[in-house]
Amino acid sequence: MNHKTINENQFLNSALTEENPLITTSKVMEWLKNRNEAINVEVTKIPFEQLDHWFLDKTNGMLKHSSGKFFTIEGINVKTNWGAEKEWEQPIINQPEIGYLGIITKEINGILYFLLQAKVEPGNVNNVQLSPTLQATKSNYTQVHQGNKPRYLEYFQNATRDEIILDQLQSEQGARFLKKRNRNIIIKIDGDINVHEDFIWLTLGQIKKLIQKDNLVNMDTRTVISGISFEHSISLEQKLNDFELGMLQSANDKNNSKYNFDDIIKWITDLKCKYELTLESKSIFNIKNWHVTPYDIRHEENKYFRVIAAQVAISNREVKTWSQPLVEPLQEGIIAFVVKKINGIYHFLVQAKLESGNFDIIEMAPTVQCITGSYDNKSSLPFLDFVLNAKDEQIKFNTLQSEEGGRFYREQNKSMIIEADESFPYKIPENYIWLTLNQINYFLKFNNYLNIQARSLISAVKFI
Questions:
Q1: What is the CATH number of domain 3-39+98-237?
Q2: What is the pLDDT of residue 315?
Q3: 417-446 pLDDT, tens per residue?
Q4: Which helix (H) or strand (E) covers residue 169, if one does?
């Protein structure tokens, strides 16, 4: 048995385990409540001129930090032959640094545990959420802010190849970030580790159970654990319900998929060659239909999102007080996977989606993804009407999940997994394809195939 198989068995055992002698899942809720009460948080919207070290640079046409680090808010012109809208302009976050999203794991009594932290980001809906062990941009961990280094950074910087059990470069929101990627990494340690009061050991089964609740597990934790594969070679003694067992079968089956690997590669390659995406940098003071005011950068019709400034005070951060820009949504969005049994195995209806900031034009997305815009014209968005009118017994997952609170101000999406029956349309648009969970997990091993909304939903798939 090779090292990789051992890791996948350990991941599955942890995903099938909710019993934790260190802390029960219900006690985690109480622990988060206590951490919330122990951490002082103040986030106040301010005008741009009150930002400290940030300024509107009229010469270069951007909102930037005086150090030249962290990120900038810039303008872009977008031209494409995809979809109904062939050209538009918008603000976008340019953050070329590759940050760490890292989780430390350790085997305790034969079960793999994950070290998560109770972390507050300025844009979080409910302040404290469960975050990875390490969640830091390069500007943060190189201490551009002159604060302390993030806890446990050295474990990741000094990790050996044998300790690294997952290591991927994955994208962030393509409609908001310009070709942004983070290093999603899980390392396994054997020795003792000093656990700070804001950190907690949880099984993967507990984490997936907590994802079933609104806004408890942050986006960065979800994207890291989405990359975990669950192929196994052990007998299952746990009792699984029909849907959960079906998900586990979909994660393991290699013989009954509708399409093979070559079919999928040809499908997405054809789309990448057929559709074009051309970007041109523009001054944020000169992007069509957008206005820079003393308090925000907003669309003239109050659509999509706006860029605001905030003064932040968080008592347990490396830097206690600072100010920064944040992107504020003007509507909640919806992301949903439709799943259906094909050849006796659950398949996910995956959408190929072009977004302005994508690293390679197109990424695989959920069946429905309406990001913080309106979806008044339901007929123009495939399968949206089906998702919005799903019956209770079809809905297998339905929560509100937050976007990344370090850049987005109180943004959350309605997140759903919905089971379709045989009456669901067989014919689908050219930019859709049916994939098993095993195939999705395989593509997650590579860079820039599944977008962050798809990864967020995949992280919610549970087996108990």
A1: 3.90.79.40
A2: 85
A3: 999 998 998 889 999 999 999 999 999 999
A4: strand 164-171
Out of 3.30.70.3450, 3.65.10.10, 3.90.79.40, 3.30.450.20, select the CATH number for domain 250-277+331-459: 3.90.79.40
The CA-atom distances, in angstroms, between 296 and each of 45, 52, 178, 290, 299 are: 10, 16, 20, 10, 10
Distance CA 210, CA 41 (A): 23
* pTM, full prediction: 0.94
- The answer to whether the CB of 118 falls within 8 A of the CB of 200 is yes
Would you say how long the chain is, in residues? Answer: 464
> What rounded mean pLDDT belongs to the chain?
92
Q: Are 115 and 104 a contacting pair, CB within 8 Å?
A: yes
Half-sphere exposure of 368 (CA within 13 A, CB side): 28
Nearest to 226 by CA among 409, 101, 73: 101
For residue 123, the Cα-to-chain-centroid distance in whole angstroms is: 15
Q: How many CB atoms are located within 10 Å of the residue 43 CB?
A: 19
The backbone region for 83, taken as left when phi is positive above 0, alpha when psi lies in -120 to 50, beta otherwise, is: left
Contact status, residue 216 vs residue 130, Cβ threshold 8 Å: yes
Q: What is the residue-wise DSSP string for 108-158?
A: ETTEEEEEEEEEE-TT-TTSEEEE-SEEE-HHHHTTTTSSPPPTTHHHHHT
% the chain with pLDDT above 70: 93
- Tens of pLDDT, residue by residue over 177-235, are 999 999 999 999 999 999 999 999 999 999 999 999 999 999 999 999 999 998 775 56
Q: What is the pLDDT of residues 293-313, one digit of tens each?
A: 999 999 999 989 999 999 999
Residue 54 to residue 32: CA distance in whole angstroms: 32
